[in-house]
């Protein structure tokens, strides 16, 4: 009986380790509080930073922040997308798709306790929005910047 419990515990730990490896490794989910930059990537960043860039401001995005089925605040964000200068028309052609993806990401992230309760959440949110923009537009996206962020508490 003891051997069976030991084997069962080892199987559960192996499945948990494999799931964590998939979530943070294969899937590419950012690990909070860890710097995702590496020395091998710094050469690419230096080369890419020489390209002229332009900031394309998107229309304001408003997202309800939910907690236990109730709207606790309204988040309004003005996002600027940093792109290579020759790629600004890509933002115009993919604007609706990009805006929809940003709304989905913001709503999903702000429904998590981690994002709602931590003050340093902006770095994680920017990483996720940057990755979302790159998935839609491609490597022309260099970054995401919050031009304006308003968090308005709701009465209730």
UniProtKB/TrEMBL annotation:
- Record key words, sorted: Cell projection, Cilium, Flagellum
Q: What is this protein called?
A: Flagellar basal body-associated protein FliL
